[in-house]
Design a protein that fits this description.
Elements lengths: L1 H14 L2 H4 L3 H6 L7 H11 L11 H14 L3 E5 L5 H13 L2 E6 L2 H13 L6 E5 L2 H7 L4 E6 L6 H8 L3 E10 L8 H10 L3 E6 L6 E6 L4
Parallel strand pairs: 1-2, 1-4, 2-3, 4-5
Antiparallel strand pairs: 5-7, 6-7
Helix pairs in contact: 5-6, 8-9, 9-10
Length: 222
């Protein structure tokens, strides 16, 4: 009798391997990491940084304008000229995390660049950002593109040159945005005047936050 029971036990063991038969499905599920709530991570980080974005960063209201533009139009390939310490980039990358896109952002100052990279990490958005430490005067003309969204917030006197370098790489339907366009800083009027001469461009200015964000949409070719 004992021999017969032993044979039956051996047959059951080989028919049902230990790892599959004896580990409950519920236990296996419990070993999986919990899903990441990206929205909560970003909101928590932004809340912790309220009032601390002093180094040539946009306001939260400006960041929300950029976020909403990307979400509304489903943009996926973004270029930012002038990272600073990453506030605008976080809003842009957060939107791109929802559209399946990625941000390429350029900063010339190494200290600001390093802090921006750390802020992207803390916000949980590093996977959606390609941060470059470089001179945008040199890098932007060399970038292959195409892009469907551009945000420029760098040296104002170079605004016309940034626009001329990026515009041919902007896809039809895309949007080129620029910060701090209210006022008469050198380069801003020249940039806006030039943009308004282009037959495939339509420019307006959002003045709701006081900073002034220009939005130049590229019309589809006829």
């Amino acid at each position: 009798m004992k021999n017969r029971l032993g044979i039956m036990a051996a047959l059951l063991f080989w028919a049902f391997p230990f790892s599959a038969a004896l580990i409950p499905a519920q236990s296996q599920a419990q070993t999986e990491p919990p899903p990441v709530n990206r929205d909560e991570t970003v909101r928590s980080f932004l809340q912790s940084m309220r009032g601390r974005w002093h180094d040539m960063n946009v306001s939260s209201a400006d960041g929300r304008i950029l976020y909403d533009l990307i979400i509304k139009h489903g943009y996926t390939r973004a270029l930012e000229i002038g990272t600073s310490t990453g506030h605008s980039g976080i809003w842009i990358a957060w939107a791109l995390s929802k559209t399946g896109g990625k941000l390429l952002t350029v900063e010339i100052d190494e200290d600001r660049y390093n802090l921006a990279v750390e802020n992207f990490r803390r916000a949980g958005l590093s996977d959606f950002v390609d941060a470059r430490l470089a001179d945008a005067h040199e890098l932007v003309p060399r970038l292959p593109g195409p892009f469907d969204f551009v945000f420029c917030d760098a040296d104002k006197d170079w605004y016309p040159e940034y626009f001329k370098a990026a515009w041919p790489k902007l896809k039809a339907g895309g949007c080129y945005t620029a910060h701090n366009v209210i006022g008469w800083m050198s380069g801003i009027r020249e940039f806006l005047d030039y943009a308004r001469t282009l037959p495939d461009a339509e420019t307006s200015i959002d003045r709701t936050t006081g900073s002034g964000i220009s939005m130049t949409f590229k019309r589809p070719a006829k």
